[in-house]
Structures are given as structure tokens and as C-alpha cells.
Amino acid sequence: MRTSFSLRSTIAIVLAVLAVFLTGALAVYDRTRSYRDLEQVTLRRATTLSHIVAPAVERAVLQGDLNGAEDEVARLALMPETALALVCDADHRVLCTTDFLWRNRSLYQTPAAAALPLIVRARETMTAQSEIAPDGGSVHVACPIHLDVLAGELYPSRIGVLYTQTDLAASKQRELGAIVQRTVIAGSAALAACFLIWGYLRITFTRHLDALAQGAAAYASGRGVLRVAAEGPQELAQIGRVLNQMFADLMADHAALQASEERFRQLFDGAADAIVVHDLEGRLLDVNRVACESLGYTRGELLQFTVFDIETRLTPDELVGTWKQLRALPRVSLEGVFRRRDGSEFSAEIHVVPFAHDERALFCASVQDITARKRYETQLEKARAAAEAASVAKSEFLANMSHEIRTPMNGVIGMTELLLRTELDAQQRRCLEAIHVGGKSLAALLNNILDFSQFESGKLHLEAAEFDLRLLLEELAAALRQSARNKGLKFVWVVAPEVPAKVRGDSGRLRQILTNLAGNAVKFTSQGEVVVRTHWVAETETDVTLRFAIRDTGIGISPEQQQKLFQRFSQADASSTRRFGGSGLGLAIAKELAVRMGGEIGVTSQAGSGSEFWFTVRLDKQTPGASPADVQPRWRGKRVLVADDNPINQEVALGILRHVGLCADAVADGAEAVSALTASPYDLVLMDMQMPETDGLEATRIIRDPDSAVLNHQIPIIAMTANTMSGQRERCFDAGMNGYVTKPVSPAALFEALSTWLPQDNEPLTESPSQALAGIIEQDGAEPDVPVFDRTGLLARLMKDEELAKVVIAQFLKSVPQQIESLRRSLEAADVAALRLVAHSVKGASANVGGERLRQATWELEQAAQAGDLPAAERHLAAVQVQFERLQAAMRSGR
Questions:
Q1: Angle CA(9)–CA(15)–CA(16) in degrees, nearest 5?
Q2: Mean of the per-residue pLDDT values for the chain?
Q3: Beta carbons within 8 Å of 286's beta carbon, 6+ residues apart
Q4: Percentage of the chain exceeding pLDDT 70
Q5: What's the pTM?
Q6: Poorest-confidence range of 254-258, 406-410, 571-575, 802-806?
Q7: DSSP 734-773
Q8: Packing angle, helices 2-62 and 234-270, rounded to 10
Q9: 419 CB burial (10 A radius; 0-12, 13-18, 19+)
Q10: Which run of H or of E encompasses 478?
């Protein structure tokens, strides 16, 4: 009996120990396997979820719904492992995120900064990117999304990224702790079993050990989680409790995994569009609830199908070809037709995104029903065709009726004019004149209707004939001036000197626009003036763009009325009690003509304060004849940029440059000069030294910097300055300038600098610089008295251009009072820097216009400001005011 019991005890002990170790080994193995696969499982789960959420986020962004996009991003936070999810644009600005602390911040300020290379790679390759952090602490996934409909390879700056960061370190730590815990528990249980079995071996022990072994075997075989009875000897009951705790922990982990899978399924099934997942052979691997509802099948039925069974528009070869293209693209969008279970079909927009799982190429397709949109597009196309047909019929009717009515109307007007030449009494003449005026008005209305019909039918053609623009403007001015004079209005027509005389284009249509706009200005103005200005805007080798502005002091137009202008059959005042008549076609026709002549039209107005209508046209240049004697052929077509903050200095420099045949533009500071040199090619720069914001020295350094965006870093730069102090020339050369001229700029000095630095063609010089300026430049005299106004010097600098001199003087007299007021404000604020800068500007302008005494006064003011002597500056400012008043009087008297 003892031997039998001993044998049974030994067997029981061995079995008990084996059972404990088996249970512990299974637990450790289960945890170790979970730990080993944790990284890849988490990576696949985060990648799949990002692919599912990315289309919804993209659609919300394309619709401009950032709140909707943020709601979609928030779905990613349903995963407990998700530490951060956000959407950023190409400039790495956070558009929406699961953590509001990082919203609208730069990506560099967020925890996602560590994954910036991954995010950049996703944008550049246009494919989803994922990786495990080198320290194994987190998983990063980046999916590219389109921020607008033009995003793609041509517009990479419109590609954003959906970024997800999953905390892997905590999961690893939890799993590792569980493994250690299970190992310790298993080892402790085994040792306890070995020691207790020898002392307390009984039949019940063997029974309980068998029960434990059965429970462990049941769990290992996957038949469920068991709970063993913690009874018997204390040690055995403890083992039972430990095993029950271990089973409970395993059950909790299993439940957490199931919950995570359930959340994924909720996201998948809760998507607004149908989603199907398939492989390269088209086999359906998964579908969501919307897909089942849209197609009328159960999930199990659909998983028996292929894509080719439900999509009818695209052939299998086309579909497979599209999927293969996705190997090099992040996504593809196409349209298809799907067949439902009942045989009906619907049009759909399909967005396909590739991803990999278990080394298999899979595809996630989002299917959106667009049947209603297709139906609307068809209806819209039919409506458009019907509207076009009606418009053509209307235009043809108007054209025919205008021709039919105009023929007898011309007879009425002609016969009336003949009768007016005969002997008539006063009453007969009044009646005939009324008939003649009414006929003319009706003829004008018919012409407008005919033009309108020609616009709509596309039969209006513009002529291209040579004409004298200045003569046309003079004729128009003479005709309109008389109408204005009859109403007691002042009428002024100003044509800028640079406006060419000989051009090619449709002079009749240009006359029609000007007559309409200027005639309206006279018509709607009861008192005051009407001013018409013609300016040069731009030109190329073949054409020139001009701007016409018509300003009046009439009734003005409210913002609400301005919205109706330039619309056909529309008037600012459409009431039955309006003071002024009209068909409402004049401005609409003017707009059509301006656009067809390569320009545009607009208005600036305020009710009760007059209006300014403007328009631009592009006219062809005529082939020029012989060049003026003072234009150098070698400089024809060369472009010079003048950088000076003083408009007077600009006008003087531009006048000299254009007088010798150069194309010249002006900017107000160094920053604008850099921008101009970045946008357009120039051959030389005249750079003022002292300008606000960016001065000439700093601008030159930027231009010379090879990393700047200017087109020509070696462009010649000539300094212009009124500062003749020692060291100024060296500062210019140190900054990278090529030459140096002092203000006031004399034509001789400027011509010498241009001859030295301006790129020249290979044409020989017909005359030397001094010969070119002979008879134009008058040398400065050595008069002992400094004049208030050196008109001779001014004309010499402007090369005896009287018209330009008038423009310069007018601009000077207008701007200097404003600058003196600025000097007074700077002095009151004790702002010596601003005081010195404005004084320097007035000094240069005074020198250019020949105001020597004013130049001397502003020089003394500049020196006082530079020394910080405010009392002296106040005295000199008073002197500046006195000298300006004297100069103003001298300029107006012409002395």
C-alpha cells in the first residue's frame, strides 16, 4: 500500500509540477508572442485606419469644412494607442488635430516634428508612409491628402498630410510587465506545488491538480476561459486563485483587443460612402454597411463576389490596369457604374487607395453615388443649349429689326437736314430741329441695339487701321468742350507726353467708348468740371497699352448702383421718375469694346461726390520713321529702373532718360527696386542712396547677393545722392555699385555714366556725348547771387522740355507742402531720423527744380537733425517755409 501510494504520489507530483509549468509556459508564450507581434500589429492597424479616415478628411477639406475634417480626425482617437493625429498643409501648418493645443501651429512646435522626414517623404512620393520609431516607442503613419481640386504633381504645394502617432512604448511596457508577472507567478506556483505536495499529499490534492491541468488544457485548446475552484489545502487554494487571476488578466486583454476591433468596425461601417476592400485579382475581402445597403446584398454574399461582378462600366482589363497604376500613385479617382441586386444600376465616383497587408497588395475603394449629380448635369446641359438657341434667335431678330428701322430713319434725318437749309419761319424751324434731334437720338439707339446684337451673335469685328491718336483726341475734346461750355462746365483733356501719336487699331470704336463715357460725364454733371486724362500704361515691341480716365463732379453713383453698371439694359437709376434717359446699353457696349481691344473698364464713385470712369486699350504700334536727332540708336529698347522716393526726382530722371530714347520705370524705395528686378529684366539701375524702408546701399547688397531672386545680379547700378561728404563714394562702391552721380543730376553727368555702364549694341556712335547734348545743356554759371528759382538750370536738366518742366513744377508745388507738414510733425515728435530723411528728400527735389535757396535751407535743416540739435532744426524749418513760399511765387510768375 505504501509503495503504491508513493508511486502514485510521485506520479501526482510530477503531473502537478508539469501542469503548473505548462500553464505558466502557455501564459508566458502567449504574452511573449503578443509582445513580439505588438509592433507590426499596431503598425498595420494604424495604417489601415489612416487609409480609411484619409478620404473622409480629404473630402471635408476640399469642401472647406475644417470642422468636419477635425471630426473625422477625431475618429482616430478612438484607438487607445493613438497619441496624436493631425492634418498639416504644405507649409507644415496644423489645420486640424485631436489635441487643440497644437491647432494652427507650425508642425515644428508639435510632437510630430520628430516625424517630419516621414511627412515630407509622403508628400514628395504621394504615397502613404509608415515607420516604427528608432527607439521603438511609437508608430508613425503619414497619408497624403489633396487640399484642393488642383492638388497633384503639377501643384505639390496643395498636397497635405494626415499624420497619426501611436504610443508603442506604453503597450510594450505593459506587455513586458505582464510577461514578467506571469513568469514569476508560474515559477512561484511550481515551487509551491513541489514543496506542498510532499507535505500535504492527499486524494483531494491530486483531484485539484487534475482540475487545474484540465483548466489549463482547456484554455490552451481555445475552448474558453475557465475558473478553477480555489479550495483544498491553503497552498493549493492559493495556486487556484493565482491561476484564476491569470485567466482573468488574459480575458481582459482579449476583451480589449475585441473592443479595439469593434471600434475599427464602427468606423468602417459608419463611413458615409460605400467602402470595399479587394486584392489585385478583384476578389472582395471586406465591405462596409453602406456598400451592402447600396448594392442590396448581405456582407457574406458580397464577399463571394469580385469587383467585376458588381461594376459594369469598366472592363476587367481597365480595372486591373488602373490598380497597377496605383503602384506609382497615392490614389486614383474614376467614374463607374454599379449594378444592384435587383438589376438596376447607378453611377458612382470611385476613389481607390492602395495599401499592403501580409505582403499582399490590397486596395481600399470609396464609392459615392453620383446619380443625382449626373441627372442635374444632363438637365443643365439641355437648359444651356436651349438658352444659347434662344439668345441666337434674339440676336438675329435685333440685328434684322435694327437694319430695317435704320434705313427709313436715315431718310427722315437726311430730309430734315435738307429742309433746315431752306427758308423757314421760326415755328417751322423749331419743329424741324426737334424732329432732327429726336431722329439723331433714335439713330444712336438703333446703333447701340445693332452693336448689342453683333456682340451676341459674334459678328462684330474690329478694324486695324493706322490713325493719329492725338488728332482723334483733339477732335473729341473740341466736340465735347462745346457741350460742356453750354452747361457752364469746365472741360479739361490732358494727354501725357509719353502717349504715342501714330498707332494702329479701330479708331471708330475707340471714339465710341470715349464719346459714351465723356458724354455721360457732361450729361450727369450740373456744375464743376469734367477732366479726361490719357496715360501710357505699358508697351511691348509691337503694341502699347493706354489708360483713359474720365472724372467729373456730377451726381455720383452709390455702391448699390455701381453693381448694375456695365450690364445690358441696366441703368443706375431705373425708376420712372429718373431725370436722365437712356437705353442702358451704352456702358455695356463700352465694356465689350474695351475687352475686345485688349483692356478692361471700371468706375470709382461715391453718391454726391462725382465719378471717375476709366478703361484701358491695347493698340498696335506703327512702324517708326526716322529717329529723333537726340535719340541714341545704340540705346533704343534699353530699360532703366529709377529708384527714388521723391516723385520730383523721379520725373526729372525719367524725363532725361526718355529724351534720349530709353525706356524707364520708377519705384519709390529699395524693396520695390528688388521686386522690379525680380519680375522684369532691366539693363541699368539709377539708385537713390537714402530711401525709407530699404535704402540704396541695402538694396544693392540684396541685388548682388547670388542667393537673391533678381534676374541679373551683375546689372550696373549708378548711385544718385545729394550727399557730397567724404567717404560717400567709397560706401557706394563697397556696397557693390558701379558708378556715382550727384544731385541735382545733370544730363551731362548722367549721359557719361550711361555711356560707361549701359550695355551697348554694336552700332557705332554717330556723335559723342558732348555733341549729343550740345545746344541742350547750358553750363552752370558762376553768378555770385544764388537765385530763388533757377529756371534755366531746370530746363537744362530737362533738356529744354517745356511740357515736362510744367509737370515737374506742378508736382513739386503739390508735394512739398505735404513734406513740410511732415517735417513739422517729426520735429514736434522729436523724431530726428524722420526729420533728417524728409529734409534730405526735399533738398534733392529742390536742387532738381532749381530752388537753390530752398535747397540750402533744407541742407541746414538736415545737418541740424543729424546733429540732434532740435532748437536749431526749429529755426531752419522756419527758414524752409519762407524759402518755399518765395520759390512758389517765382515758379508761378515764371521767373
A1: 85
A2: 77
A3: 268, 276, 277, 303
A4: 76
A5: 0.32
A6: 571-575
A7: HHT--EEEESSPPHHHHHHHHHHHS---SPPPSS-HHHHT
A8: 20
A9: middle
A10: helix 469-486
